[in-house]
């Protein structure tokens, strides 16, 4: 009988799922535009987050974290460690499809064809694709767990520089979880609750982004009601982490009900018609009072919600339980941020309202920077610079802003460090503390660096703000540059002043967490 030729690509397209992480549509699996230093930093930060997550997770959800840790190790060129991670998972959980697929991929890259072939054969058998070898157990449950692990991975992608990218990854993660639930009708409830928790986290992040965009009520409403239903299940979990965060999430949703034209029906259906959001936040804190890891997470959420006093109280609780800066550097970092926002005026962040709070912010930033990862976060350098600016230490502030720009990723839209740097330079010029020659040199250098680092539109937006607030200094600088024949930057400054930015909404830092 003549063999039928099979197109592999067509066969793959027809499959409902493909095990493994290395084929997923994640930036992690594609060439990065960032330099290796920045890419490595981002990967290390994400891996640090995953190790942090490992302390929270129990049961099969730990395999979702560990598989992803193996992927990050692979991309950090720790291939042997990646292999060991996948091998250990396959021994502990011989039915883990992702571990076998990931292990096959690593063996293939190590040119170990026989080992890769054995993994692929084992994978085919577990998926029920081998007609001669029928596996024990239910292939549907294996597929469900495989898809849930893949859905989890999307939360840890790297290089997401705009809201559309973030929305796309969250939607992809939720799609994987929905497929997992369709396959996993017989999955134990406790395991499903871990899926529900991750799904609610994705939904709340998405809702925050849609809320910022406006005019998305119809899209938000369906997801909002579904999130409430999922939370009802998570609140019953025996896992302290899930339960505490679920109460916090419920408080967030109840606060957001005012953003709808009418109260979402899900609030009434789930029995929360009279529930006070503050009571929900209080329950979250009470549940986690002896757990510094969960307290740190709550503090971060409260900070992003603008609840600085609650964030500070929770940070203090976390540091009372675990004061070591090496083990608890995130609490020191969050405490520093909160102190900064308590120390400046809320409108423009230009006036000192509490000097002790500002000094405390600098002290806790120093604590956070005792660990290597704390030294490479641009946000810490930006906030340190702003603290020093408020304290009239302009030269020290300038060094922090420069460091923040250098640490930022290529393609980043967080250009505040660039604006702060230019404003500080112009301030020193207006005070006769630097001369025209030095100002020209510095502005020319850092505008060039900014154009290499950030989207051009963002650079122009920041230049326009600087020109508007420091018109006299910019005009004097422009005259000096024209006299020196440096007309290119002058042309850019005047084009910036005349450019219409109203068509483009400024992309502020997302308040999703």
From TrEMBL:
InterPro entries: TPR-like_helical_dom_sf, TPR_rpt, TTC22. It holds the Pfam family TPR_8. Coiled coil: none annotated. Gene3D superfamilies: Tetratricopeptide repeat domain. This is Tetratricopeptide repeat domain 22.
